[in-house]
Design goal:
Blueprint lengths: L13 H20 L3 E2 L5 E3 H9 L3 H6 L2 E3 L5 E4 L4 H10 L9 E10 L11 E10 L4 H18 L4 E7 L3 H15 L8 H9 L10 H7 L11 H16 L5 E2 L11 E10 L4 E9 L3 H4 L7 E7 H10 L12 E5 L5 H13 L4 E3 L6 H11 L3 E5 L1 H6 L1 E6 L5 E5 L2 H8 L1
Parallel strand pairs: 1-5, 7-8, 12-13, 12-14
Antiparallel strand pairs: 2-4, 3-4, 5-6, 6-11, 7-9, 9-10, 10-11, 14-15, 15-16
């Protein structure tokens, strides 16, 4: 049906869009405080960028990407996440030549072909932050502190920060051999996808959603027990920085994250709601990704969070989002003769920074006031012949029912409202 949105997508209607705008403004404010600048990247990229960046053994690349050939027969993919595009932009525009670190954020729409469910859509929205050009554990900790700060300001409670280290390519290579040795006797019981991962990327088996595979790996050797001394020292420093910032955390040795590019620190923030627990943010360090995508050896770390999941969590926790976009005043009028005056007054009020509305449907005064109530305006004024002639009118506080006589000018009304 042409009048029904595609499965897995949704319209953000006026009664909800103010919630998005409120959170988006809080995001911009916090990013300014952290010295993070916005980057805006295309909604589609060359498919190879995600195959190399996200990892060709991930569920995202194997099963979920929206990929097509354009009219030039080039393989194009709608972005399934934000990091790869940010890295591509960092490389293409030579941001590595700038004083480092480079700190970027984005608020974007993403696309994955997966089963729609609560807080998860095929078109969804991400807020993400990427730090380039620093391998310091302090950057990892600060990067974790940014979403933690956002959630606290939004009023979220019962949050847990889970962290882990998945080491560097060297210690992961040794761990993969241990993991394969553990999995070999149970290889035939693995799902078909994990059988394919066994040789190509056995660590991905730890992240499989199959209940059978989950049961097989529950006693597998832990990666954190196999990391090298350098990775271990880095992780210890991250923990110290989190502690000094009073950010509570716990070690979760089973976090590996779902994308292939992570190294060393990985983390998730989990919200413990009354009926469910859910990851509402995740990220980590990815020191090899810039080089993998054609840039130099540039260390980096970052995170992303889903806006839909965040809004759902706020709703589950009963957090009210203030609507700052309601109109200040409704200017009603009696008869067509006073319509021009009403239009002029509304225009002047808007010039004064007052959010004002008037009737455009020829309603009766009673219907206009009923409409003003529905709009939730705080003030109203009615313009009749006497008011226009005398230059005075009664300004009504719709919340309190109090009326005040004022001069019929935008400046006088704005002064009273403000």
């Amino acid at each position: 049906m042409l009048t029904k949105a595609p499965k897995g997508t949704m319209d953000i209607l006026p009664e909800n869009s103010y919630k998005w705008q409120y959170i988006e403004e809080e995001i911009r404010k916090i990013c300014r405080e952290f010295g993070v600048s916005e980057v805006r990247t295309p909604v589609f990229e060359h498919t190879e960028l995600f195959q190399r960046g996200v990892g060709d053994t991930t569920d995202v690349v194997e099963k979920e990407m929206y990929t097509f050939n354009d009219k030039g027969d080039r393989s194009i993919t709608l972005r399934p996440e934000g990091t790869a595009g940010a890295v591509r932009s960092f490389i293409e525009h030579g941001m590595f030549n700038n004083p480092q670190p480079t700190k970027l954020y984005y608020q974007i729409s993403c696309y994955r072909y997966e089963k729609p469910q609560a807080g998860r859509y095929r078109e969804f929205h991400q807020f993400g932050v990427e730090y380039f050009g620093t391998q310091s554990p302090s950057a990892d900790a600060e990067m974790i502190s940014l979403p933690w700060t956002l959630y606290k300001r939004l009023g979220l409670k019962k949050l847990t920060v889970n962290i882990n280290s998945i080491g560097c390519p060297k210690c992961r290579k040794e761990y993969n051999e241990k993991l394969k040795a553990y999995l070999k006797p149970q290889y035939d019981q693995l799902c078909d996808t994990c059988k394919n991962r066994y040789e190509r990327n056995p660590m991905r088996i730890l992240d499989c959603k199959s209940s059978i595979c989950k049961d097989i790996v529950k006693n597998a050797p832990l990666l954190i027990d196999s990391i090298c001394q350098e990775c271990s020292d880095h992780f210890e420093e991250v923990k110290k920085y989190l502690t000094v910032m009073d950010i509570p955390f716990q070690i979760d040795p089973y976090i590996v994250r779902g994308l292939d590019y992570y190294t060393k620190t990985v983390f998730e923030i989990v919200a413990q709601n009354e009926n469910s627990n859910g990851t509402i943010c995740g990220g980590g360090r990815y020191d090899g990704l810039v080089e993998e995508l054609g840039g130099g050896s540039v260390p980096a770390c970052g995170f992303a969070l889903g806006m839909e999941r965040l809004l759902l969590t706020m709703e589950e926790q009963g957090i009210e989002i203030p609507d700052s976009h309601k109109l200040d005043i409704y200017v009603g009028h009696i008869g067509e003769n006073n319509s021009m005056f009403a239009q002029k007054l509304v225009a002047d009020l808007r010039e004064c920074g007052i959010c004002a509305e008037r009737d455009h449907l020829g309603r009766s005064v009673k219907a206009q006031m009923k409409y003003a109530n529905k709009l939730g305006v705080k003030y109203s004024v009615i313009l009749g012949d006497d008011e226009v002639a005398s230059g005075k009118a009664r300004l009504k506080n719709m919340y309190e029912g109090v009326e005040t006589e004022i001069e019929l000018s935008a400046q006088a009304i704005a002064g009273h409202i403000n």
